[in-house]
């Protein structure tokens, strides 16, 4: 275990991602388990620059991630050795993405769209894709700039 001093803009999610801890809630619980009573993090968590957090280090991170995976609470996937364990061109395909806004467990608004991912080529260590987003389906009539952008036929290229 080590003591970490928070920086401006730090969040539990960012720190957990940097440490490769797969769920930031477990990072909060780790800190609360090892800190003094008056230093415990309670909801809502407001991180200020200069706060001291007790965070896992080395094998403790591995054990924490094993616990997270055993409980089925993993939010992140970190490929072994930083490499995706399957061939990138296999990502080709059509996908449906659904966004829902929930308030107290009740769906306030929902929309979905279909997207098609096409693998274009590989250059050096970069992979190029074409992403097309189309067929927007809304459950309510709300015309925001974000929804209008989804309605247009987009065809940018991205690389990983």
Give the tags.
33% strand; alpha+beta; 160 residues; 4-stranded antiparallel β-sheet; two-stranded antiparallel sheet
Question: Can you describe this structure?
Answer:
There is one protein chain. With 160 residues, this protein is α+β, with helices and mostly antiparallel strands. It folds into 2 domains: 2-71, no CATH class; 88-135, no CATH class. Helix content is 24%, strand content 33%. The chain has 4 helices and 6 strands, in the order βααβαβββαβ. It has helices at residues 12-19, 24-34, 59-70, 145-151; strands spanning 2-5, 52-55, 93-103, 106-123, 126-138, 157-159. Strands 3-4-5-6 form a 4-stranded antiparallel β-sheet. Strand 4 (106-123) and strand 5 form a beta hairpin. Helix 1 (12-19) packs across helix 2. The longest helix has 12 residues, at 59-70.
